[in-house]
Design a protein that fits this description.
9 helices, mainly alpha, 198 residues
Length: 198
Amino acid sequence: MPLDLFIAMTVFAFVMAFTPGPNNIMLTASGVNFGFARSAQHMLGVTVGFVVLLAACAAGLGLVFAAVPMLHVALKIAGGVYMLWLAWKVANASPVHDAGDTQARPLTFFQAAAFQWVNPKAVVTSLSAVAIYIRPGQAATDVPLMLAVFGLSTLLSVSGWTAFGVALRGLLANPRHARIFNAAMALLLVVSIVPMVV
């Protein structure tokens, strides 16, 4: 891959990974409520799930979406419903230092990985990256490089957003403040659904 194309792809990968979206909102809330270590499966699930989604798009998933437009509609509906459920879960989460709640727990590896397949930002990013940065006839070299770059950018992003949540824990030691924060994160998650349905 030419250096200029590689740089452009790397910038795109990091911008898409670090800008606010459903994953980053949920991981910030997870960092606040559960800490870094307990959020590790969530972080790893997002990273692996996104890389697998990107690989599937490179293998031709985008052609399936183009051939069957109803799949795009189904993705919007499934993604919207799942994100509303996640917003409810975030809004009702209690901080880990809240001894009254023993039920709350972060997303598992498989829940976070599966979410990438109905996360509109992840799907659009994957389809766009494959269309823009994979050169005709060069998939054998371009795809592994793309997976490595996007995998690294995603891992750094999820770690950073979770660490940001952990840094906020001291400010949210008051359960009332924590509940307000969780409600705000849930609202942001709901707002992030809007661009995909309009």
